[in-house]
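Hi both,

Apologies for the delay on this - the queue was longer than expected. I finally got the zinc ion-bound model through. Below you'll find the protein sequence and the ligand SMILES exactly as submitted, and right after that the structure tokens for the full complex including the ligand.
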Amino acid sequence: MRIDLHTHSTASDGTDSPAELVRNAAAAGLDVVALTDHDTTRGHAEAIAALPEGLTLVTGAELSCRLDGVSMHMLAYLFDPENAELLAERELVRDDRVPRAKGMIAKLNELGVPVTWEQVARIAGDGSVGRPHIASALVELGVVPTVSDAFTQNWLADGARAYVAKHETDPFEAIRLVKAAGGVTVFAHPAATKRGRTVPETSIAKLAEAGLDGIEVDHMDHDPATRDRLRGLAADVGLLTTGSSDYHGSRKTCVLGEYTTDPEIYGEITRRATGAFPVPGAGGRRA
Ligand SMILES: [Zn+2]
Ligand SMILES: [Zn+2]
């Protein structure tokens, strides 16, 4: 069974529509795929409607969090999407995305880059606007050769010249909110140092004490030594470990199913969740 628990669609900063994403997931030979757009569940209905036979969808989101000044991402799975408290927090984060993007565009303009809000909004389309959309604009303008080249201290990385912080949820609060909504939390790419500062392992242990369910270990931004270290930490503090592609369509280089999650761990995640159930594709087998 091949399980990929972290993907993005055009509902946030991926390039596949939710329907294309689930079709591509089936074509990639996946049995289970989670749709985890940034701070939104907006793509779920379209993904469910298009779900191919044999593919199971895990509904989720990737929540923008910050701990001690360090930005971090929290994957949340199988929570009740109508939970009012969790909805309100997601809206707070989302509402901040447009003013934040405009702030980064203003900084880029000051740096002599002629990027406009219209250009970034066109690239984002229906998706909730984020840094990757601005990065794509910088590629279009020939400022950087690739999207990842925009995520440096020169441009858009955390604390970089054109960076603007956004509202981000305290991760302890995120764990509490997701649990109250019947969901499961997994700390995404916790040691992805090239994205900026990461939270120390002592903080991961504290998050585990507060009810964090797992950490994402097999991820393109973790080298083999980092994965070994994270697996050791997870064993020490009783966390599940997952593996995922963090697929963004053509915006990033990773492919669906590039990293996968062990079926036993997937089973444990679904057992812990009470807010929603995995959705089997029409006529498909239940995972
Ligand atoms: Zn992330
Ligand atoms: Zn992601």
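Main takeaway for now: Residues 6, 8, 62, 188, 246 surround zinc ion (ligand 2) (CB under 6 Å).

I'll put the files on the shared drive as well.

H.
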